[in-house]
Amino acid sequence: MYEGLVAKSQNRWPSLGFDVLSVNDLAAPFFGAGFYYKTFMWPGALWEKLYEPLIRRAAGLGALLVLEALAKRRGLDLRGARVVVQGLGQVGAAVALHAERLGMRVVAVATSMGGMYAPEGLDVAEVLSTYEATGFLPRLDLAPEEVFGLEAEVLVLAAREGALDGDRARQVQAQAVVEVANFGLTPEAEAYLLGKGALVVPDLLSGGGGLLASYLEWVQDLNMFFWSPEEVRERFETRVARVVDAVCRRAERGGLDLRMGALALALERLDEATRLRGVYP
């Protein structure tokens, strides 16, 4: 960032007050993030059974690797940490599975119909098996909004935009809140959580795992590389660690939170790339 940098909205035709293309927002709830991959993926028949599950799993893994890196910086020990996952779509399910595999304890999961809670920890694979087969959790112990106030170290927001607002944020006991869903936190909720010292991992930082996995696949295709799963995982983890470090350093340098640090870094990189390429608006 520097003095004189100008930011312009792309959604401004014919005016900011009445943007014709904002009609796209009406369709957004009906398409997952993978919709954009679907548009270009070939062969299409492999999308649902092969590509999409892999991308969603990568998104879940990426979110937890980001959390682990940030927790280490904050001195938070995640071994055996209690995790609550709000939202059990493909990304939320992937987060729950990876959390269990990384030594955390998933104590609650929730859908729009309610939440399932077990203080000793859920058998995530069993819960997901039932949910995928029937569309319902094995049982409902809580109302959907009650999961926010459960005793846990980590709260994962993987459902919908604005799920955690200012009022509900006051119920949160978790030390870390991971925003996997786009805009899962309202600004009021984020301000409150940051004010009480919670670690807030914004969607800008936690939600890039699927894109990173697609990028690594693209690199292999272009260069005719055939990486093993272990090589892909190593490159994936290296890039996640690099991004977390860059965002943290930018945030610390400017006295910013992680969301603003990520935004500042992204704008600076975009501005520099535009300047070097000689591309003008």
Write structural notes for this entry.
Helices cover 49% and strands 10% of the residues. With 281 residues, it is an alpha/beta fold. It has a six-stranded mixed β-sheet, sandwiched between helices. Strand 2 (105-111) and strand 3 form a beta hairpin. Helix 3 (47-74) packs across helix 4, helix 3 (47-74) packs across helix 10 (229-254) and helix 9 crosses helix 10. The protein is globular. The two termini are 18 Å apart. Mean pLDDT is 85; it is low at 29-41.
Architecture blueprint of SSEs:
Layout: H1 24-27, H2 35-40, H3 47-74, E1 82-86, H4 90-101, E2 105-111, E3 114-117, H5 124-134, E4 154-157, H6 166-169, E5 176-179, H7 187-195, E6 199-201, H8 203-206, H9 209-223, H10 229-254, H11 258-277
Parallel strand pairs: 1-2, 1-4, 4-5, 5-6
Antiparallel strand pairs: 2-3
Please name the defining characteristics of this protein.
281 residues, alpha/beta, six-stranded mixed sheet, 49% helix, 10% strand
Kindly report the spatial arrangement of strands forming the biggest sheet: 3-2-1-4-5-6
Question: Beta fraction of the residues?
Answer: 5-15%
Largest sheet: 6 strands, mixed
Number of helices: 11
Number of strands: 6
What average pLDDT do the residues reach? 85
Q: What ranges have pLDDT less than 50 throughout 5 or more consecutive residues? A: 29-41
Helix content: 40-55%
Query: What is the first-to-last residue Cα distance?
Result: 18 Å
Helix/strand order, N-terminal first: HHHEHEEHEHEHEHHHH
**Helix/strand class:** alpha/beta
Principal-axis shape: globular
Report Rg. 20 Å
What is shown here, in short?
The protein is an alpha/beta fold and 281 residues long. It is 49% helix and 10% strand.
